[in-house]
TrEMBL record:
It is an enzyme of class 6 (ligase). This is biotin--[biotin carboxyl-carrier protein] ligase. GO terms for cellular component: cytoplasm. It comes from Mesorhizobium zhangyense. GO terms for molecular function: ATP binding; biotin--[biotin carboxyl-carrier protein] ligase activity.
Length: 275
């Protein structure tokens, strides 16, 4: 089966551009916007040669993994548009639950104590974990088109058949988890789940519902965390995400801190120190 949109996505006007190999689905999406594309366009590939992760990191997509980017044309309010990263995480988690059978209780990530009910969890701000290991990364990139409109590329990379070995955090793939799902099947489910969660988001008006759904799948909630912010490390307890989807931590002094951007570490890693 080649890449296909779910009927629900096609009915809502989403379109699909599929490739065998790309440099970067995000790069192509932003190029399409500059060429005049009006958005609601999925760019997908099973191989990506120049993928990017957060903070300029490399994201490797060998043959058989999924690289997918949704291009949307949004208004000037990029702060609200940025919360679509949480929509993307929820959509992917929903898709994974639909295509991976026999989901089971997951051990908390990075050695944290306790268990959780979701095998696929969401790690703030934009990762999806499976049994505590990184399965997917999500990267949002934007580019102003004129005084009123911006292009937003929502990139979603999933380790379907392979995962990186030389990374400083646990990683996994669907194949390593015993799943037989391929990239095409996962994308079909993702395009369907995106439509459901996008309707719930409702141009940002439904953000509180998205936030509550996200928290119900949040990795490390209520546990010890360490967050690296601009070279400094803040340690404490992960309390919630606030109405702006900032990471809320009660630090070791008892003070509440709200973090807009940073790298989060859980459990034993948080206790030992976040490298």
């Amino acid at each position: 089966m080649g890449f296909q949109l779910a009927p629900t996505a096609a009915a809502e006007g989403f379109r699909l551009e599929a490739h065998d190999t790309v440099s970067s689905t995000n790069i192509i999406a932003l190029e399409r916007a500059r060429e005049g594309d009006q958005g609601k366009l999925w760019i997908v590939s099973k191989r990506q040669e120049s993928g990017r992760g957060r903070r300029g990191r490399v994201w490797v997509t060998p043959e058989g993994n999924l690289a997918a980017t949704l291009l949307l044309i949004v208004g000037r309010d990029l702060k609200t548009a940025a919360t679509l990263g949480f929509v993307a995480g929820l959509a992917l988690a929903d898709a994974l639950n639909a295509v991976v059978p026999n989901a089971r209780i997951a051990i908390a990530p990075d050695g944290a104590s306790g268990e959780c009910s979701n095998r696929f969890e969401l790690k703030w701000p934009n990762d999806v974990l499976a049994d505590g290991a990184k399965l997917s990364g999500i990267l949002l990139e934007s580019s102003m088109l004129d005084n009123e409109r911006a292009a937003l590329a929502i990139g979603i990379g999933v380790n379907v058949v392979a995962y990186p070995q030389d990374v400083p955090y646990p990683a996994t793939s669907l194949k390593a988890l015993g799943a037989t799902c391929d990239a095409e099947t996962l994308f079909l489910a993702l395009s369907d789940a995106w439509s459901d969660n996008m309707r719930l988001w409702n141009e940002g008006r439904g953000l509180d519902q998205i936030r509550q759904r996200w928290l119900s799948r949040a990795a490390g909630l209520g546990g010890q965390v360490a967050v690296r912010v601009d070279g400094n490390v803040v340690r404490g307890v992960f309390e919630t995400i606030d109405e702006d989807c900032r990471f809320v931590i009660r630090d070791d002094s008892g003070a509440i801190q709200k973090i807009a951007a940073g790298d989060v570490h859980f459990g034993a890693v948080a206790s030992a120190g976040a490298a």
